[in-house]
Fold:
Amino acid sequence: MLEIDTVTCTKQDRCLFDSLSFTLHSGQIMQVEGPNGAGKTSLLRIIAGFARADEGQIRYNHTDIREDYDSFAAELLFIGHKTGVNQQLNAYENVQYWLQVHGAKASEEEVYELLAKLGLIGLEDVPVRTLSAGQQRRVALVRLWLNKAKLWILDEPFTALDKKGVALLQTQFQSHLDAGGAILLTTHQDLTAHFAQLQTLTLEYRL
Amino acid sequence: MQTHHSYWLAFKSVYTKDVTLAFRQRAEIVNPLLFFLIVITLFPLAIGPEPALLTRIAPGIIWVAALLSTMLGLDKLFRDDYNDGSLEQLIASPYPLSLSVLAKVAAHWTVSGLPMVLLAPLFALLMNLETQSLNATVLTLLIGTPLLSFIGAIGAGLTVALQKGGILMSLLVLPLYIPVLIFATSAIDTSSMSLAYGGQLAILGAMLAVAIVAAPIAISSALRVSVS
Structure:
């Protein structure tokens, strides 16, 4: 599904990785590991198409993502360090706004049900800035239940989440994989116990 | 959940979000207007309140004040979305980025340009502008302020990744406002001589038409560069 072909990235004269190649098929989950500054986030941003690789190509279903970015974007769900949750709007407004700009529609009950599932009920009508870090992240993670994207790219999705939240997320990962999706994520958590088919990619810190 | 693709719905939700946010922080709307008012009132104080002189320089002052107060809101146009990651989400959406950008510029004009157009008659009174010039002032502002939002948004897109991008943005954008300023003030001048000023308006309209088509593409490229 996703092919990374000899991708090289250099930042401030430091080579983060060079000639990196791998493929990710549907139903697969890949964890990118490495110390801080190894280029995990840079790699994810290149694959998501936000940054340009110095060399190499990212192909999705055998087409370069740069050729037809909008249709690649329709199949992509990206949640980065900056989650794209507006601080002034409340949780419900944030979810509805995100759905609308991503060409999706969900009924009010559906959204409220999910907010309840993620422990945000009762907090859905206060501005997100008044919520705790973990709750703010949960507002962003509601998207995992409300998308038809095949490829999920998640940068540290477990940050600030409590144990229950982490478990909830892992269950959702599993059902996405079972439905034929693919996940590429960075995390410092050990996921080997949860996903039998987990692949790991280790980036080293280079000088 | 179901997929429901509609360009109009996507445009509307980006637009509504920005306008709602502006109304929740009312200072964002009121401050540029107060700035506009204060700049205009400073001139009679500095130059002297002689009506004939004020009538002569009024178009220039109103337009320069409009340029400056448009700049105030521009820095914030993409800043919050850049900081909280919404910009990345807009890029990674199935809709073209230029559509969302068009909606954001439209929202910016609604909260900054439109109030200036509506209040222009009041300010014209302060500057002793005659009725015929008043019509021209309102018309040029109506066509010119969206143009200011479009051109300014290109600068805002280019500088959004910089920590202190505000000043740099002004330096980038203000020179680009010169053509708008020339044709707008020339239209008002012509009208004060009771001559037809349709030509200048037509040129402004043509510039606006080009901006509506071309600026969103330029702005989205600028944003992609800033995000990467």
Notes: The radius of gyration of chain B is 18 Å. The longest strand of chain B covers residues 2-3.
